[in-house]
């Protein structure tokens, strides 16, 4: 999968969150764990690749420098564009858990903090690292600004239902979006809103997302830790959703989780056996 899929999913979250909230159910622990592991895995890979670029930049070798920059751009695109889903999902989860025990909210908050650090490091690289083409640095700066505006616009739409503005990149701007949406688009049919948002998203981001995915499997893990919580109408017309793959991924995750528990139990049993042998 690609970060483009996460951008589409951010729109699906906003459109499907009210219906998902009305069911009165929280986020299952297995999906919370899956989201945290996949998101933290992405962040660890990003930090490693950014450090590697800064520490091992091939001075005096233009061809190797171009290859190193090409690898880094994949990472920077994922960081900058991926923030849209990270913040939108955090706003939705926090809203769902209002008035209930906060179980998933601390996890999504941790992911937001890690992603914010990744974005700051990416910005510093664009400003100070060697071998960054000026034109591409300007493109990535545009991508980051565009992602921030989309974060605020989508969270502003969630604020109409009770989400908090502090998850936005610019809370004041998100509040302005919410006010504009409350007064100007109340009568727009949901199907029209969905179509317009997805078309606008593609036009805004696709020209700036030129690189292959840096961590496609981890992106897939993020996608399938969120999409099962959204109602079918929010996803059913999306060409990027493969429902068979979604359930296969979920079954695999459950299988991996069960295998991990078995391994832990076997390790505990082995430890008890060793302890008994020492005692005898």
Please, could you describe this protein's structure?
- There is one protein chain.
- With 280 residues, the protein is an all-alpha fold.
- The protein has 2 domains: 3-241, no CATH class; 244-280.
- The chain has 10 helices and no strands.
- The model is unreliable at 236-240 (pLDDT under 50).
Q: Provide the structure class.
A: mainly alpha
Distance between the termini: 55 Å
What's the average pLDDT? 85
Main sheet? none
Domain count: 2
Give the H and E element order. HHHHHHHHHH
Quick one: how many beta strands?
Answer: 0
Any idea what the radius of gyration is?
21 Å
Principal-axis shape: globular
Strand content: under 5%
Question: How much helical structure, as a percent, in the residues?
Answer: over 70%
Quick structural gist:
The chain is mainly alpha-helical and 280 residues long. The protein has 10 helices and no strands.
Summarize the helices and strands and which ones pair or pack:
Elements: H1 3-22, H2 29-55, H3 62-96, H4 105-128, H5 134-159, H6 171-184, H7 190-205, H8 216-226, H9 232-235, H10 243-279
Features:
280 residues; 2 domains
């Amino acid at each position: 999968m690609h970060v483009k899929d996460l951008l589409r999913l951010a729109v699906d979250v906003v459109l499907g969150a009210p219906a998902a909230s009305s069911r009165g159910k929280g986020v299952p622990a297995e999906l919370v764990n899956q989201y945290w592991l996949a998101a933290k895995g992405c962040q660890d890979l990003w930090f490693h690749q950014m450090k590697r670029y800064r520490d091992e930049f091939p001075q005096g070798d233009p061809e190797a420098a171009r290859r190193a920059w090409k690898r880094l751009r994949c990472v920077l695109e994922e960081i900058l564009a991926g923030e849209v889903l990270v913040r939108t999902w955090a706003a939705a989860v926090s809203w769902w858990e209002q008035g209930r025990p906060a179980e998933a909210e601390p996890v999504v908050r941790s992911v937001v903090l890690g992603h914010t650090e990744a974005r700051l490091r990416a910005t510093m690289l664009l400003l100070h690292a060697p071998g960054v083409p000026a034109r591409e640095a300007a493109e990535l700066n545009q991508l980051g600004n565009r992602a921030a505006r989309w974060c605020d616009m989508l969270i502003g739409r969630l604020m109409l239902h009770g989400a908090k503005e502090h998850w936005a990149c610019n809370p004041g701007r998100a509040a302005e979006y919410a006010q504009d949406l409350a007064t100007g688009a109340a009568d727009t049919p949901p199907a029209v809103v969905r179509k317009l948002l997805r078309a606008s998203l593609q036009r805004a981001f696709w020209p700036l997302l030129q690189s292959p995915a840096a961590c496609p499997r981890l992106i897939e893990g993020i996608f399938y830790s969120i999409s099962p919580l959204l109602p079918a109408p929010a996803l059913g017309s999306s060409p990027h959703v493969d429902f068979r793959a979604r359930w296969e991924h979920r079954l695999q995750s459950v299988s991996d989780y069960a295998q991990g528990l078995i391994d832990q139990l076997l390790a505990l049993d082995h430890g008890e056996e060793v302890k008994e042998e020492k005692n005898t």
